[in-house]
Protein 1
Amino acid sequence: MKTRDDFPQKTKRNVAMRAGWHCSLIGCGKSTAGPSEESSDSFTVIGEAAHICGAASGPGSRRYDSSMTSAERKSIDNAIWLCADHARMIDRDEVTYSADELRAMKRQHEESSGRDLRLGKVQGIGAGLLAIGPDIICTGDIPTIGETKWVLHLKHFVTGDIHELAGFISTFSGALLEHKYILSDELGDGRLLSQAPTLSKDRNGYLLSCPLAISARRVDVKNLGSDMAMQPDTNDIYLDSKGNIARVSGLDYLPQKVRSLLSMQRGENVFAPKAGVRFFEYLEAFKGTPWLPLLMKLDVIRQAAIPDKSSFRDSEDTPLRCVTRVRGFELLSETPVDQRLPVRVDFEVLGHGRWQHDLSVYMPTREQMNERARLLAERPSLALS
Ligand SMILES: [Zn+2]
C-alpha cells in the first residue's frame, strides 16, 4: 500500500503562521482560527495545510509529482495554508489551480502578511503579541492595564494552546517563580504574576485576568557599575592612554552589557542551562517568518522586566537592570556572519531616557549547542540551577 506524505505538525503550524492564519487563496484571505462557540475551553482551526503537489499517487491526489522525494512532498515548500473550503476546492480542480499557480499565490500572500506585520496590522488578528509564562505566546491586546491587574484579550496562539494555558493556571502554585510572568510586545514591558490568572470567555474571545506583583526594581544607569572594556567585535580587552586596562561604567558600559546578555543563549552555559535568551531556539524554528523578530523582542522584554531567579544571577534586579521599557527590537539580518547577528535595540533607560543602539550578538552553531547538551547529559551535576 502506498503511504501518504502528510505534513508533520510543526510544518502545519509554521505554514499557518507564515500565512498569518488567513487563507492564502487570492481574494479569500479568510481568518482560519479563533475561539470555538462550543465550549469555553475549545479553540477552532478551520484552515488546512494543503499539499501543492499531492501527498500520494492515485485518484483524488491532485498535482502528484512522481519525481519528488517523500521529504520534498512533506516539506513546507510543498504546503499552502487555506481555509477548509478552498482546501477542498483545489483538490477538485488541478487545471485552474496548477502547482505553479498555487506557489505564486502562496508567495504573494506571505509577502502581504509580512508587510502587514511590519506595518503593525496583522490582517485583523491584532498587532500585539503576548507571552504567558515560557511556553505560551498569543496574539491579542490588553483592554485593561492597571497597576495591580492586566486583563489580556487572547486571539490566536502562536506557541502552546488553550489546554496548555489551562495547565499553566492549574499548576501555577507549584511552578517556578521565574516562569510566572506575562509579557506584552505592545507595552514593551512585562510583570511577574502574584497569583494564578483566571480565564473567562466573552463573545469576542478569551479574557485572561492577571493579578500582578509590583513592577520589578530597575537601577539608574549611573549605578550600572563598571567592567573591563571590551572591543565590540573581538571581545578583547585593551589599554587606555595611560597604559592601564581600559574600563567602562554607567551609560558607556551599557552597550557592552546588553551585547553580552543577548549573546548568551539558553542551553549554552552548562553551569546555568536555563539562563540566557532564546534567540537560537527561535532562529531555528521561525527563520523566514514574520514572527521571528517579534518573538525575539518578547524575549528581550523578559530580560528587561522579569527578575532572573534561574541562574547564578539570583537577585531582585532584572538582567538588563536599567531598562524600563523595550520600545523596539529589530533583527537586521537573519543570517549570522562569523557567528554574529546584527540587531538594533530601542530602549527606555532609567536615568537617561530613550537609547538606541546597533549591536552584534553572538550566535552558536547547532554543533556547538549539541556539544553543550551532550556535556550536560553526561555531567548533570555541572548545572548550578
Ligand atoms: Zn479561502
Note: The radius of gyration is 23 Å.
Protein 2
Amino acid sequence: MQQLDVHSDLTVVGGGLAGICAAIGAARQGSTVALVQNRPVLGGNSSSEVRVWVCGATAHGVQHFARETGIMGELFVENQYRNPEGNPYYWDLVLLEAVRAEPNITLFLNTDVRTLATADGEITSVTGWQMGSEKEITFHSPVFADCSGDGLVGHLAGAEYRTGREPRSEYDESWAPEIPDQNTLGSTILFYTKDAGEPVRFVPPSFAKDITETAIPDRRVIRTEANGCSYWWIEWGGELDVVGDNERIRDELQAVVYGIWDYLKNSGRFDADNLTLEWIGAVPGKREYRRFVGDHVLTQHDVLGQAEFEDRVAFGGWSIDLHPPGGVYASERGSKHWHPDGNYHIPLRSLYSRNVPNLWVAGRNISASHVAFGTTRVMATCAVLGEAVGIASAVAARNGLTPRQLATERFELMRNALRRADASVLGVVDDDPDNLALAATVTASSTYRRPAVEVSAGTMPLATDLAMVLPVDPALDGLEFLVDVREATSLTVELHDPLKPQNYLPVELVDSCSVDVPAGEKRWIQVPLSWRPEVPANAVIVLKANPSVSVHTAETALPGMIYLAHRDPAPDEQYTEQFREWKHVLRRAGLCVRVTGESSVYSAEKAIGGHARPYGGPQMWMSEDLAWDPEPTLDLTWPDPVELGEVVVILDDDVEEDLINLHHHRSPNEILPTLLRDYDLEARDASGNWAPVGSVRANRRRRINHVLDEPRSVSALRLTARATNGAPRAHVVSVRAYRP
Ligand SMILES: Cc1cc2nc3c(=O)[nH]c(=O)nc-3n(C[C@H](O)[C@H](O)[C@H](O)COP(=O)(O)OP(=O)(O)OC[C@H]3O[C@@H](n4cnc5c(N)ncnc54)[C@H](O)[C@@H]3O)c2cc1C
C-alpha cells in the first residue's frame, strides 16, 4: 500500500454536479483543487451509474428565461451539441472533459474519503482510500468543500446538521409536519429496456417482489415505453436511515425493480415479449441525508416569497417537490409540488457550516429546511451552488476572509467575482469598478427598434385567455394584433404588471380596454393599452377569450416574448407537477403582433453593465435584420484611452430554451441559433489605427474571453458580427473590458 499526501488550495469531496462545479469554479479563480470522488465516473446521481436527469430552475418550462448560466450553463450547451439524444455515457464524457480542461484541478476517482483530521475546530486534512490502486491519500488544504451529498466530511468534522423533517412550528412552514420526525426522501434504482427484435424470456430471480400484492400497480404508472427516470417513483428507505441502511435499501429496490419487470414481462397485461432489460442501476440514487446548518436556513417562505437576499449567489426555480415517506408502497401520489411564481434566490449564508469555520457545503446538503430542500435538491441548482462555493472559497482565501466574513462583511467581492464568471445569479447589475466598459459610450450600426412579427403561419381560436409577455422600455403606447373575426364583437385586452422582474404571470392590472372589431379576416386591430413603468419591465398583455376571434400565429417570436394560455385546473390537480393556471403555449413561436412606436428594449446600452440575462426584459443588444444590416457592429468608445488587457464577450444562448435532454426532453438545435457564429473584435489606438483583438469562427459558446498578448492603450473597441448560428439578427448580451 502506498501513502500519499496531496496539498492544494481547496479539497472538494464528492464529484456530483455540485462538486464538479465547485472544483471548476475555484480552479478558474486560480486555486489549485483536489477533486475527490469515490466512484469511477463523475456526475453523482446524473452519471451513467445512476441516470437521474439534470433538472433545474426552468422546471420543465414552468419558469421562463430561467436556464442556468455559468459552468452549469456551459455543460448544458456542450451536452446539447455533443449529445442531443441524451446518451448517459456521452454525458459522463462531457463532465470528464470539463474537469480535465482545468489545469488547476487534480482529479482523484475511485477515492473514498473516510477519515479526517482537525485542529482548533478546523479541518486540516481528509484521508481517502483509492480502490484498485491500494493507495491511501491524505488531502491537505486550508479549506474544504463537502459536496458528497451525504455530508460525511462535515459530520466527521463536527459540523451541525439536520436530518428528517422540522416541525411546522420551527419555521412556520405549512408543508412541514406538526411533529418532527426522521423521515427523508428515499433512494431509487432505475432501469432501461430495449427491444430485442424477437421474443425473449425473463425468468425472475427468487427475490423479485410480487408487486400485485402491493399498491404499486394501482397507484403508479407502469408502461412498456417507460425507461430510466420515468421510474423515479421506485423509491424506498425514507423511513429508514438512508445511509446506515443503504445495503438493505438497495436489496429492496432491486427486488421491486425485478418485480416490476416480472409484471411487465410475465403478467400478460403488456405487449412486452420482445423487450429485454438493457441496464439496471447497481448504485441506489440517494435523494436526501444530512443538511448542514449555516448562518441562514433557507425555508419554504424564502422560496415561495422569492426573498431578495443581499448575499444571493444562485437561483432555483424547481417546485418544492416532496415525496411520501412510504415511497413506492405509499398509497398517496408519489410526489407533491408547489411551484414558486418565478425563480427564487439562494444566499451565500446557506453554503457554509456555522460552526466549522473552514467548511463550505454545496449540493443536496446545504443549509435548508426539509421543505426548502425539496426544491434546491435538483441537480442544475446543486451545480450553481457548487460554482458559487468554488468562487467563494477562492475569493475568501485571496482576501484572508472566513466564509462568514465574506458573506456578511465583504460580499461585494463575491458579487463582482460571480458576475465576472457569468455565474447564475439574478437581478445583479454589473457595477464592477474593474469593468472599463462601464465608462464607455456605446453605439451600434443598427438596433432593432420597431418590434413586429408580421408573417402569419396560421390561426388559433381565442378559446381561452391568452397572455403575451412583452418587454417594455421605456413605455408602451399601443400595439396591434392580426386577427380573424367571425362576427363583429368587442375584444377585451388587459395589461398586467408581473411585479417581479423574474416573474412572467399577470398579477396586477395596470390598464385594460375593449376594442370593437368588425367581422373579417386578417385584420390588424389597434389595442390602445399604455404603460410607462418606473424602470424597463415586462408587461403581460392578456387577450380575453372571445368565441368570435382567432389570432394569427407566427413561426417566430422576438427575444423576451413568450405566450401563456389560461386554464382552470381541476381542484385535484393542485400540488401536482402539471398544476398551473397559465400554461406555456406557442413555444419557440408567437403571435402576429406590432408594437406601436419605437422601443429601446434591444438598445446597444443593454450590452454594457446590466444583468447579462433576462430580468424585466431580455437585457441585450439586438441589431436590425441581417438582410438590412448584414454585418452589424457594436462600438465602445472611451473619452480617454484605457489600458486594455482582456475583453469578455457574452452572447445570447437563449436561456428560455430548456436543454434538459438526459431523459426524454429534446431541443431541435445542436447549436443555439441565437449565438453569434462568427465575429471580429478590433481596438483603436490613440492615433486612430484599428488592430485586431480577436477573431472568432464557428462559435457555439456563450462566453468568450479574449486575453490580449500584450496590454494596449485603446480609445475604442468594435465588435463586428459576421454571422449568427441561424437567428435573423445579431444578439450580444454583454461586452466587458478589463485592465491587464
Ligand atoms: C431517483 C432520483 C430522482 C431524482 N430526480 C431528480 C430529477 O429528476 N432531476 C434532478 O435534477 N434531480 C433529481 N434528484 C435529486 C438529485 O439527484 C440530487 O439532489 C443531486 O444529485 C445532488 O447533487 P450532489 O452533487 O449534491 O450529490 P450527488 O449527486 O449525490 O453526488 C455526490 C457524489 O459524491 C460521492 N461521494 C459521497 N461520499 C463520498 C466520499 N466519502 N468520498 C468521495 N466521494 C463521495 C458520491 O458517490 C457521489 O458521486 C433525484 C434524485 C434521485 C435519487
Note: The pocket of flavin-adenine dinucleotide is lined by residues 13-19, 36-39, 44-45, 52-55, 112-113, 128, 147-150, 152, 187-188, 229, 232, 285-287, 363-364, 377-379, 382 (CB under 6 Å).
